[in-house]
């Protein structure tokens, strides 16, 4: 594969943009390929190479790249202006759809990114409870703002230390970080910090440490304890919302939080996100209440049109879409497991619906610590070999592979053949 144009662009980009990229995970060794265009399940590089894509822009593109209905709707909207600074009918339509689809959402506010959604959901929970502390879980990612960019110390219930420079210790001190899928440590932390915890924020299925599903009953237990202690439970459904089902993980697992954050899929490839929940919490948001949140671009007509069109397509084809995604996911999971067994490798394949990941480790992956035990070098070798076969998966053990409705049976067969060759001799 000739990638010389990408290599030259990367050399230049590195001098102009930190790491040559505008979001860290896009950089990988020796250099990323630069994309010229995309369609359906395919990414096309500036070097003329074609990839079957399982990164899907890190989750948003459940209908594939450049879905014709979305492109058409956005083109029409472009002619009518791109920003008004006044409310529109489409904002009411998308809000109504979200409220009807997502069980816990009685009122919703649109924002631009998942980072904004979690930041403002947490502020609302703090405003509502009058408490400062929050609980998050190791390996769960909730965006790049100060409240949540915090990792665990050594003990299970130690206060977090920042994952990044530039985060005030006083902010990190209010974030308690606990292991995922461990209800005892959660119960202990809640009891030790009684009446001080405003919110628990959790990815109901971790999609930012590979894929890690919740143990049976785990989310129900978290719900029970947070309800008893009057702690606001926030499901961060920026990945799982509209992916596991139209109502997200809360519908898939039948557990209703107090608030939820949405993003990625709801924009159909355009920047838009949302947070919402119980009416009595959401009524605290300005201008109705005293929790401030604002944004110039939120609810902009282009993103809203793209989002509305995406949701309408999914609603209209609900049963066929989720059935198809489940079938495709099952096929890849089974295929990958067979390959691992045939090639005599020790590896785990985790999957929920259309999210999957392989971990080169010998034990089950139930939390972030398990995921970190896997052989990351082996993973990157597997990723590079797949790229040379024309298959693009995210260049990190700690990301998720996503299937879209644009992936055909033929794509999946080609992918499994390539995976077999990539895994052989690892
Ligand atoms: C991607 C992601 C975010 C952050 O969303 P951005 O749009 O990148 O700011 C938050 N939470 C989860 C679960 C995510 O996967």
Textual characterization of the structure:
The protein is of the alpha/beta class. It has two domains: 4-54 and 318-424, Aspartate Aminotransferase, domain 1 (Alpha-Beta Complex); 68-316, 3-Layer(aba) Sandwich (Aspartate Aminotransferase, domain 2), CATH 3.40.640.10. It has 14 helices and 16 strands. The chain has helices spanning 4-16, 68-79, 89-101, 114-129, 169-172, 183-192, 218-228, 248-252, 279-282, 301-316, 318-342, 368-372, 376-388, 409-423, and strands spanning 35-39, 42-45, 50-53, 107-111, 133-137, 150-151, 161-162, 175-178, 197-202, 232-236, 259-262, 273-277, 348-352, 355-359, 391-392, 401-402. A seven-stranded mixed sheet has the order 4-12-11-10-9-5-8, sandwiched between helices. It has a four-stranded mixed sheet with strand order 1-2-3-15. Helix 13 crosses helix 14. The longest helix is centred in the last third of the chain and has 25 residues, at 318-342. The model is unreliable at 152-158 (pLDDT under 50). Pyridoxal-5'-phosphate (PLP) is lined by residues 113-115, 118, 141-143, 203, 207-208, 236, 238-239, 263, 273.
